[in-house]
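re: ur question from yesterday

yeah so i grabbed the chain u mentioned. its 309 aa long if i counted rite. heres the sequnce exactly as i have it in my notes:
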Amino acid sequence: VQAYVAARTSRAERTQALSMISSSFGLGTVIGPALAPLIILPFLGLPSPFFVFAAFGLLVLVTLKLRLPDDTPSYAARGRLVSEPMSSGSAGEVYDADEHDAEPEPVAPVVERLSWRDARLRPWLIAGLVGGHANAMILGLVGFMLLDRLDLRATPELAAGPTGLVLMAGAFATLLAQWGLIPYLKMGPRTSTLWGMALAASGCTMVAFSESLNAITLGFAIASLGFGLFRPGFTAGSSLAVTRAEQGQVAGIVASVNGAAYIIAPAIGVWLYNIAPLESFAIIIGLCVFVLVWGRTALQADEVLVRPN
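ran it thru and got these structure tokens back, copy pasting raw so excuse formatting
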């Protein structure tokens, strides 16, 4: 999806477009829990959600086939290009052009393998990995924290409502960031990333010292607002750091970084919280502050990123 969007948007529009894509996942976290009880069908029993999920997948597949425009990009990559082996052009025909955003051409780019250690990508990947771990850790421990702060360890079933309220507030705040703030303020990748980390650190600090459900909900919403700004910023920054011909590769790398944050970070967050609750929040806040301080010098300025390659 990221590569497809990159092929159909200008560099100046990339952050806003990817923000809308990211917000679709946030929207799922808002309406998904509300719809879950409705898809347990009497004649199928508890396995019925799996059949519904399969039906959703088929519906998406048919919709993509019928409604999604062709893969031909509006902004094709430029560079040393060769015609496809089975195309109508002469075999091995070569086209030389500068690497600039331009009109589509009936050729395929020759692209070298994109490395994780690429100097253009490295700052964005570090920011995404560190900030992603902070996000995953707070999500992993918030439910256990509510059990303690609301004194519900003896009756954990009563924590379902408060936990759902806090998570839903966070999901709405994420949507506000991605559907509202980024498009309205026309925030670039660096601005979105740094402001996101600042808000995330502030919200996590509030959560760390709050005792009431209202205060925890507000703090978590502020933190989620920050993470909602951070994730599209990191994604768009990574996309803009490389050429259009490399968008498929960078999309895979970004997806891997996002996934890597959720492998062990939630478990580490819960483990640290059980040992030293305040210290676990200090680590989360420290990760956010690191990205904020380090990113001010390491991340490319928005004006540089949106310039044509």
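noticed a couple things. Residues 122-149 form the longest helix (28 residues). also The longest strand covers residues 81-82.
anyway ttyl
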